[in-house]
Amino acid sequence: MIVKLVYFAWVRERIGKPEEEMELPDDVKTVRDLLVYLKTLGDEYEAALQYPEVIRVAVNQEHVEHHEAIKGAREIGIFPPMTGG
Amino acid sequence: MNPGPTIRVQAQDFDLQAEIDALAKGRRDIGAVVTFTGLCRDEQGSLTALELEHYPGMAEAEMRRIADLAIERFSLMGLAAIHRFGKIRPGENIVLVIAAAPHRQAAFDGASFMMDYLKTSAPFWKKEHLADGSSGDWVAAKDADDRAREKWRT
């Protein structure tokens, strides 16, 4: 599955780019799987996702929990807890 | 009549009175308009600006989802939410919420609900620019904001 990953705030800064397209391995099925997989891609991903429990994820621009599947995702947003308002 | 909410994410400032007029002018059924404006503060002089980052598309979509919930729950007659992005200096506006209803309690509650959910669910992030010229930290999410949202889960 090829998805567009988009990063924001300190996740974007630590990974060093705002977005990228990526082919995901077939065994990456849930949000949690995705975060574990991304951490293997290099030090910058490891730094961004060091504490995956605080990371928020959106699939096709809607919030999802870590146990949820990413099947059908075209765009996956990965970012810290939100601080707007 | 419950028109859909007004949702905008923009770099430029907003005009409070113009936004109230857009929502309520000419209507004879609205008895209460509550507005909330969030401003950038200087944190006792240590902060020169906030840099507001957002997730384009999702920010508007999430604000609209929250606004639709608020309109439904409090039977609002109008709701507007405008959030700015980019560099915002102390004293300048960040966010505006306007809730209109027949009576005051629904308008107060609608505006409060909108803000409590917006702070924890709408994809915006604040980075500090400090008075010593350095780029400071990203603002950390507050547990108090999560608790403020949780009180609506009844």
Question: What does the model show?
Answer:
The complex is a heterodimer of chains A (85) and B (154). By secondary structure, chain A is an alpha+beta fold. Chain A has helices at residues 9-15, 31-39, 43-48; strands spanning 2-7, 19-23, 56-59, 62-64, 75-79. Chain A has a single domain (2-79), classed as Roll (Ubiquitin-like (UB roll)). A five-stranded mixed β-sheet of chain A has the order 2-1-5-3-4. In chain A, strand 3 and strand 4 (62-64) form a beta hairpin. Chain B is α+β, with helices and mostly antiparallel strands. Chain B has helices spanning 16-24, 58-74, 104-121, 143-150; strands at 6-10, 32-39, 47-54, 78-84, 86-88, 93-101, 124-130, 135-138. In chain B, a hairpin with a 4-residue loop joins strand 7 (124-130) and strand 8. In chain B, helix 3 packs across helix 4. The longest helix of chain B is centred in the C-terminal third of the chain and has 18 residues, at 104-121. Chain B is globular, with a radius of gyration of 16 Å. The two termini of chain B are 26 Å apart. Chains A and B meet through loops of A and strand 3, helix 2, helix 3 and strand 7 of B.
| Residue windows where pLDDT falls under 50 for at least 5 positions of chain A | none
Please give the number of β-strands of chain B.
Answer: 8
Shape category of chain B: globular
* Rg of chain A: 12 Å
* N-to-C CA distance of chain B: 26 Å
- Give the helix tally of chain A: 3
CATH architecture of chain A: Roll
- Enter the CATH topology name of chain B: Aldehyde Oxidoreductase, domain 3
User: What's the rounded overall pLDDT mean of chain A?
Assistant: 97
For the biggest β-sheet of chain B, the strand order reads: 1-4-6-2
CATH level-1 class of chain B: Alpha Beta
- Annotation, overall tally of beta strands of chain A: 5
Instruction: For the largest sheet of chain A, list the strands in their spatial order.
Output: 2-1-5-3-4
Catalytic activity (chain B): 2 [molybdopterin-synthase sulfur-carrier protein]-C-terminal-Gly-aminoethanethioate + cyclic pyranopterin phosphate + H2O = molybdopterin + 2 [molybdopterin-synthase sulfur-carrier protein]-C-terminal Gly-Gly + 2 H(+)
Keywords (chain B): Molybdenum cofactor biosynthesis
Protein name (chain B): Molybdopterin synthase catalytic subunit
GO molecular function (chain B): molybdopterin synthase activity
